[in-house]
Amino acid sequence: GGGSGVAAAVGLERRAGNYREVTEAESGDSDPGGGGPHLQHISDREFPDDLALESNPSDHPRASTIFLSKSQTDVREKRKSNHINHVSPGQLTKKYSSCSTIFIDDSTVSQPNLRSTIKCVTLAIYYHIKNRDSDRSLDIFDEKSHPLTREEVPDDYFKHDPDHKHIYRFVRTLFSAAQLTAECAIVTLVYLERLLTYAEIDICPSNWKRIVLGAILLASKVWDDQAVWNVDYCQILKDITVEDMNEMERHFLELLQFNINVPASVYAKYYFDLRSLADDNNLNFLLEPLSKERAQKLEAISRLCEDKYKDLSKAAMRRSFSADNLVGIRRTNAILS
Compositionally biased, Basic and acidic residues: which spans (predicted)? Predict the structure, then answer.
């Protein structure tokens, strides 16, 4: 959606004061049951050394995105086998791009630019998982400790990498039900890479759904013109509680050190790297680059939200969940596979 920048900023200012439905004081202590990781308070956390060296792509436009380098191994292998089979990448690209759309089977997400962007963003996540260095994780993102559905999580859940289609369905379902935009998908990827870098964890079979959900949660509040409240996601994900969503959001924010700013230059880099990923994998990428006006709006809004989050953190507010928070559009119920 569009909407005037001022109106959107004012709306966000109002939302930002409310949307972090914090369920416990921001002391950063691990949960009383002792199940969760001990997270230091935001002010006590050290800023990792390598971030100062401008090596973090989610903050610095000159650092290359993690997903693109993770995908290169597979791209090289693919090229090698194409060469052996005497198929030139040029022929492949031509064959794919001559189709009016390659997502004919997919009727749930109607806009082709949204569909193709989600396809590429989830491919980036797929490569993150497939070519990860290890399995470092945190309890708050673990699906066994915090299941998203009532179905029992199998004991070997951490052993099997999800395929691209599985990740795509999960993200597509959330975007479709919450009516999110293609730009929001790109901001989701920025937050995901920022989390992995700051928290020094890996996205793997045991945590990918909750990490992706947490990143979507934040991105949809910061960037989407239509506020999506945590309770809306609970209507989409029937078995998850608002308390669980709030706790995950709080941990995610603390791990990001409340840095939810997305400079226009960083957004542009992720945009162009996703286009490269699409080209390498013979996918369409139909999203237009951000206009200057929209890019500046993104930057302004993410800064505004960041300030609001920091204020909330300082105030260590306790917010009870009331009917007032239940405003918002009635969402489509989603079935997640």
Answer: 12-23
